[in-house]
Structure formats: structure tokens, C-alpha cells
């Protein structure tokens, strides 16, 4: 059952397609490139580009709850350089991943042999300049940041803001605003003082595609609220 796909997401160009499954894995597919001018590009042909384990099962000892590794959402960040970045989340933890290619390796180190063993510095009689040698293409996925311990309930959506520096994450009762480099800030909190008075939960949140201060969120009552972060620090009420 771990291979069941739980979420899919194209990157901004449509060249890459990321899928997350119930086993916490992320599989990235790349669109097949056009081979020649005589052979038109066959749309829909995607090959496996990279596979990595994004989340592992965890246990919350304070609440005696198992946190499953299933990927709830994946969001790509707009490409700024040769590497790709994406956000993936399970019920509690969001991770920022860097996907990069490596087709060259450095050879000719002074302090190490080619097999990686450290050389005796007293036996080094000359210095050499390391050179880059071609190698088989390797796609590496490395975690750049982990955003954890900010959601009491299950995360149902994440949305990258148009400033490409912040993003939203929403659970049943709260929405957090995260900065990719700094920290988080709670901007929506609909949790009542008495949980017996709970009448609605948040179902999704989404940033405006162009205005980084505007976002919307929906609730189980069938309402959608449009909020402006310039109007108040806590956006529990709709602004428009």
C-alpha cells in the first residue's frame, strides 16, 4: 500500500512532475526531450528523473500518536538557478528539498588519494591542481530546511507566495506563514476557547498568484475568505 500515490505536482515549466506516495517517497519524472526535428515531441512521455525518501514515520510521545509518512502536498519553487527546489509535507512536518545534477567529479586532490584515503603530508613532495572529470549523470536530493513543531493538527495544504520567499501552510484550525530562511508566524487561528463550540475547520489555503499580501482560505462550512496581511497581523476575519 506504500506505493499508492497521494499527491502530484508539476513544476512551473511543466518539464518535471513530482509525485508523493503513502510510503513517504517522492518520485520526480522528467519529460522526454525531443530527439530530432523529424521526430515531434510526444507529449505525455515522462521518465523517472529522481527518487528519494522525503518523510519517515514518527511518533508523538506527548500525545501518544503515530505520525504516518504519507506525503500530503508537494509544491515547487520557481527555478532561480540550475537546481530545483520543492516543498513536501506530511501531517506535521514540511521539508525544503534541493534537486541538483552532477555530471563531473574532482580528481587530483593533494591531501587525498583517488579512493578517498588521506595521504601522509610528509610524503607529499609536489602540489597538483585538481581537475574536473566527466562522470555519469547523478541527480541528488538534499534537505535544505525542516519546518516542524508548528502544527497541532494535520497539515492539509501548502502554498508558495508570489514573493518566492514565504509560503503558507494550513491545518484544520490554523494557518502559518513561513519564511524559507527564517521562521514561522501564525496568521489565522479559528480554534475556539472551548473545543465543544467548534463548528468549522480549515480545508485549504492558497496565496494570490501576484500579490504577496493577499491569500484565501476555505472552511468546512463551504465559505472562502479573502484576507489581506497588511490589514491585520491575525487574519481571522475576511478583509474583502
From TrEMBL:
It comes from the Eukaryota. GO terms for cellular component: protein phosphatase type 2A complex. Keywords: Repeat, WD repeat. SMART domains: WD40. Gene3D superfamilies: YVTN repeat-like/Quinoprotein amine dehydrogenase. Transmembrane segments: none annotated. GO terms for molecular function: protein phosphatase regulator activity. PROSITE patterns: PR55_1, PR55_2. Belongs to the phosphatase 2A regulatory subunit B family. This is Serine/threonine-protein phosphatase 2A 55 kDa regulatory subunit B. The lineage of its organism: Eukaryota, Metazoa, Chordata, Craniata, Vertebrata.
Amino acid at each position: 500500500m506504500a506505493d499508492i500515490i497521494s499527491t502530484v505536482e508539476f513544476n512551473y515549466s511543466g518539464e518535471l512532475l513530482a509525485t508523493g506516495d503513502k510510503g513517504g517517497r517522492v518520485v520526480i519524472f522528467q519529460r522526454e526531450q525531443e530527439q530530432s526535428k523529424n521526430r515531434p515531441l510526444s507529449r505525455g512521455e515522462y521518465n523517472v528523473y529522481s527518487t528519494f525518501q522525503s518523510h519517515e514515520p514518527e511518533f508523538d510521545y506527548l500525545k501518544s500518536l503515530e505520525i504516518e509518512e504519507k506525503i500530503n502536498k508537494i509544491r515547487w519553487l520557481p527555478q532561480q538557478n540550475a537546481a530545483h527546489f520543492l516543498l513536501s509535507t506530511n501531517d506535521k512536518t514540511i521539508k525544503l528539498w534541493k534537486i541538483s545534477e552532477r555530471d563531473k567529479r574532482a580528481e587530483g586532490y593533494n591531501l587525498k588519494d583517488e579512493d578517498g584515503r588521506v595521504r601522509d603530508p610528509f610524503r607529499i613532495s609536489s602540489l597538483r591542481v585538481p581537475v574536473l572529470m566527466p562522470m555519469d549523470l547523478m541527480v541528488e536530493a538534499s534537505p535544505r530546511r525542516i519546518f516542524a513543531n508548528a502544527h497541532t493538527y494535520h497539515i492539509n495544504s501548502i502554498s508558495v507566495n508570489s514573493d518566492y520567499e514565504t509560503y503558507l501552510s494550513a491545518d484544520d484550525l490554523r494557518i502559518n506563514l513561513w519564511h524559507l530562511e527564517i521562521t514561522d508566524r501564525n496568521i489565522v487561528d479559528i480554534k475556539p476557547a472551548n473545543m465543544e463550540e467548534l463548528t468549522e475547520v480549515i480545508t485549504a489555503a492558497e496565496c494570490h498568484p501576484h500579490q504577496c499580501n493577499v491569500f484565501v482560505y476555505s472552511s468546512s462550512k463551504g465559505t472562502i475568505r479573502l484576507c489581506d496581511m497588511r490589514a491585520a497581523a491575525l487574519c481571522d476575519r475576511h478583509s474583502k
